Amino acid sequence: MRYIRYAFLAALAVVLVSIALANRGMVTLTLLPEGLARIAGFNPDISLPMFVVIFAGILAGLLIGFVWEWLREHKHRVEVRRKTREAGQLEREVKRLKGEKHQGKDEVLALLD
């Protein structure tokens, strides 16, 4: 299994390096539209290699997806936490009731019940 993981990571690295080498050309990113930049008083332009833009887009998409999924699963985590707390309370109650039932009896006979 470990070798399969290493082979997959190596293939992924080859693909990413080939994408980076094929997209080395510089592109200019303008962060605000021209009209909005005039209103704001500045026009931030950034020149980056195209592969950086591609990888940043992929990374941003993954992060947005992870956060979205974490927020979506919130109700499930709350439910698990509530059920765990309830199970702990029920275990303590069973222990207390068993102790009350066998109070004053011989320990060996209490174990047999």
Summarize the structure.
InterPro entries: LapA_dom. The chain has 113 residues and is mainly alpha-helical. The chain contains 5 helices and 2 strands.
3D architecture notes:
With 113 residues, this protein is mainly alpha-helical. It has a domain at 1-51. Helices cover 75% and strands 9% of the residues. This is DUF1049 domain-containing protein. Residues 46-94 form the Lipopolysaccharide assembly protein A domain.
How many alpha or pi helices?
Answer: 5
- Helix/strand class: mainly alpha
Uncertain segments are: none
Order of helices and strands: HEHEHHH
Q: How many beta-strand segments?
A: 2
Give the helix proportion (percent range): over 70%
Strand arrangement across the biggest beta sheet:
1-2
- Integer-rounded radius of gyration: 30 Å
Can you tell me the overall shape?
A: elongated
Could you describe the largest sheet, including whether it forms a barrel?
A: 2 strands, antiparallel
Percentage beta strand: 5-15%
Beginning-to-end CA distance, first to last residue: 48 Å
Mean pLDDT: 88
